[in-house]
Specification:
about 170 residues, globular, four-stranded mixed sheet, alpha+beta
């Protein structure tokens, strides 16, 4: 099993702190438990989400136009910013492409965004659970049905699930 990064450890610790042991993870509830409000608003086509800190509270804005799976990832991503990057007051994430990278593959990417993506991936697709469910079913990355079933268990998009499987070394995505 690959070494868990500091960022991924923080996501795991958050789940443990609030007794979250099952998937799918209720990310909006976790945000609330951490003192972060979640507001779903129409941000048009460009903004996926944002985080605004105000005093000892914060608000995650998530684009209500996006699919539920995308909104879940956005909430987890912004919660990552809140917990990992406390020195900044505002994060606005435009319609970003999800990249789950390890610390050795971040060149060319904003390290803060990479960390928020790693946090989100571990929060909503915990490595232990992904590996367990992956091993229970013979998996073929070309089998869209298998990928969709696995993604549905975590309430994420098939694309996010494929990237997560690849980042864990379980499949090779070309």
């Amino acid at each position: 099993m690959p070494k868990m990064t500091r960022v991924q450890s923080r996501a795991k610790a958050l789940r443990e702190k609030h007794g979250v042991t099952a998937v799918p993870v209720d990310v909006a509830r976790l945000a609330e438990l951490e003192g972060v409000d979640v507001d779903r608003s129409d941000f048009g086509n460009e903004i996926s989400g944002l985080l605004v800190k105000h005093g000892d509270r914060a608000t995650i804005g998530v684009n209500a136009r996006h699919a539920g799976a995308r909104q879940r990832f956005t909430i987890a991503h912004e919660l990552g910013h809140y917990l990992l990057h406390s020195s900044r007051e505002l994060f606005v994430d435009k319609d970003y492409i999800v990249h789950f990278r390890d610390e050795n593959s971040t060149s060319g990417y904003d390290p803060i965004e990479v960390e928020a993506n790693q946090f989100a991936a571990e929060l909503i697709m915990p490595e232990v659970e992904v590996r367990q469910l992956f091993s229970e079913e013979r998996f073929d990355i070309d089998d869209e049905g298998a990928l969709k079933r696995l993604a549905a268990r975590f309430q994420v998009s098939p694309t996010a699930m494929a990237v997560r499987l690849s980042s864990l070394g379980l499949v090779v995505v070309s």
